[in-house]
Amino acid sequence: EWRAMSDVVFDAYGVIRNCPIPIIGVVQGGAHGFGCAIAAICDITLAGDKASFSLPEMAHNIMPTMVLSSFVDRVPRKAAAYMLYSSFAVSPERALSYGIVTDVVPDAELDATVDRLTAAMLKAPRIAITGAKEYIRSAPDMAIAGAVDYARNLHAVINSGEEIKKTRT
Fold this sequence. Notes:
By secondary structure, the protein is mostly helical. The protein is built from 9 helices and 5 strands.
């Protein structure tokens, strides 16, 4: 019964990881526990300069493996261990160095930064965006030669598609 309840969270992480388009997270204020996990698992996460991040589960006698599963391919082991065992909140700059966030911007500029980012992303054809996300998700787990071959194949297929050809004219 407990596993079925927690599967909702694990499944949410899977949806974000496997969504064909990039997921942008935005943190303004505190991202603690599940919020910190969501910040880490998004493809791109922008944080306001007054944000904070923590894993308070251990301080509440909760096994933190749900949140740690979001960190597994994003956050270095020692950074995860520090956050986990201490339950201390870390600054957005520290979260950036840990790989939880992508960039830190002044709170007052957060919305404008999100707008600029989404506008830049929307300039690219959807097939290029989805192909890039697929590559970023898959290639790190491959041997180098396989990752290069995969890049070659994706490059050839996507750049020969009609959607890409239309944007070149």
